[in-house]
Amino acid sequence: MTDTFEKNQRMRLDDLLHRFQQTARQEPYAYEWTHHTDGGRHPTHVVFGCMVHGNEVGSLPAVVRLVQALNEGQVRFGGKVTLFIGNPEAARENRRYLEADLNRVFLDTGKSRHEDQRAQQIMPILNDADVFIDFHQTILGTAQPFYIFPWQRLGWQWARAVQSTKVWVTRDPKITFSSGSKCTDEYVADRGRPGITVELSQKGFTDQAEQICWNTMINALKQADAEASGTDISELAIQQPELSFYQTTYSEPFSNPEMTLRPGLLNFQSVQEGEQLSASDTPKITVPTPGAILFPKYPERENGLAIDPRPNEIYRLVTPMDEHPMKLWDTD
């Protein structure tokens, strides 16, 4: 069953990548896994990122569908729209990346790894973006889709206007995700433009991922047209429900290779103070405060021990914010 499933997934991936290559028009960009079109009525440039992590393929069906719809005039957009596929080579290996995490190297690393070179090819596209939305998926299942990117007023307004989801995990923009690295959303935000990341669903092809991705792209183009017609994005945002804001309040260090989470934990699964997350007969892991689980880790093991290099954290806890992020971090 598993072999058949994986074969079918690989066949679908290859078919979608082939269809993208056959229909995409990359000019004026040099990166081959790009489609660009210009509606010619206004200058706003919306960019969508797909598969920056190779095995997070769930947005690809919607991306290929949008390329076809734009080419055939079924979807009309007055400005410029660019869609790119970040790491199809890793996708074909069913891996997150080949040599380095692409979503950490959007800066001049001076290295020649596959992902460092790829980031350099994608950066010119991001430099031109007026709005950027990057589609990701979680490794494990998630109770709901969620935005995850640093606080930014423009990013908030666009995320609220587009309504990919009603939940946003955010943080102080002064705090980098990882020292010496830069994600796509951070790269765009540094240029004063909205850089938004959406976690669609568990990695892989799912109807949920495709539909959320499609709705997000169509809504983003609609809002960009409306803004270009004279309605400020702040006005468009307040026409939609406010988002619910979460922030990371605790990370459990993966300090012992014997540490093991109990089976079946999901992203955004609610947990209570004192709840035990550890598997039986393993070092105790308990929840310090009520909240929701994010990014639980189930690494490969040998004789019960997590194989190194193990992650720095075994899970993250996010909790609702008591105040609106704008009151805490807005500097505009």
Please describe what this structure looks like.
- By secondary structure, this protein is an alpha/beta fold.
- The protein has two domains: about 1-235, 3-Layer(aba) Sandwich (Aminopeptidase); about 250-325, OB fold (Dihydrolipoamide Acetyltransferase, E2P) (Beta Barrel).
- Helices cover about 30% and strands about 20% of the residues.
- The protein contains nine helices and 13 strands.
- An eleven-stranded mixed beta sheet has the order 1-3-2-4-7-5-6-8-13-10-9, sandwiched between helices. A two-stranded antiparallel sheet has the order 11-12.
- Helix 1 (about 1-25) runs parallel beside helix 2 (about 60-70) and helix 2 (about 60-70) crosses helix 7 (about 205-230).
- The chain is globular.
Topology:
Elements: H1 2-23, E1 34-38, E2 45-50, H2 60-72, E3 80-85, H3 88-92, H4 114-127, E4 131-138, E5 146-148, H5 153-162, E6 167-169, H6 184-189, E7 195-202, H7 207-228, H8 233-237, E8 244-253, E9 270-271, E10 291-294, E11 301-302, E12 305-306, E13 313-320, H9 325-329
Parallel strand pairs: 2-3, 2-4, 4-7, 5-6, 6-8
Antiparallel strand pairs: 1-3, 5-7, 8-13, 9-10, 10-13, 11-12
Helix pairs in contact: 1-2, 2-7
